[in-house]
Specification:
It is a single chain. With about 210 residues, the protein is α/β, with parallel strands linked by helices. The protein is about 25% helix and about 25% strand. It has a single domain, classed as Rossmann fold (3-Layer(aba) Sandwich). The chain is globular and about 50 Å long. It starts with about 25 loop residues before the first helix and ends in an 11-residue tail after the last strand.
Amino acid sequence: MRIIGGTARGRRLISPPGQSLAIRPTADRAREALFNIIGRRTEGAAVLDLYAGTGALGLEAFSRGARSVIFVDHSRLALELITKNIVACVATKEERHADRIPPRLQSRFTLIRHDLRRGLPLGQLRRQGPALFDLVFLDPPYDMGLSRQTLQDWDRDNLLTPDGLLVAEERAERRPEPQLTTLELIDQRTYGDTAFRFFRRLQADSPQTQTT
């Protein structure tokens, strides 16, 4: 597993040990396809990586020009992996001896330990992050109904900018179809057993339509 593009292109990411079922990184090929679709939206973006796992999605966005990334995960192992991967991707050779984010970059990365099954960590996001996010990744464990649940939570407390994008990843044959009032599905793509669904803030003057 590695960073596909940008300033950290080619940097290898640390994967979960063994066959961890709790952390399922997005495959390199699927991640490359995703960021080809996202394109230049990463530049200067405030990014939120939910169910962050190894941090691969948030770090890919940072490598491609995002200004800040907040990672949210409930697993201590995941937060340890994310910290190590931040160091591996963005620290200088002199900074890599420490297993912590270099001080000069601590304002660019935030790690939040939170169980998203209990809803969004709104208080922490509002204290530690921007008012709104330009790019949000939602990549929960497959087959647990968490994508649908978190989409509904997000729909209730929508923190997307007017031009922001939320990308939900889950198994291709499962499709979240919650009733949404502030989000609209604008595109969906399938790569092997991985499906990406793209949502934006519902515009006041546009009908709530879905395209495939």
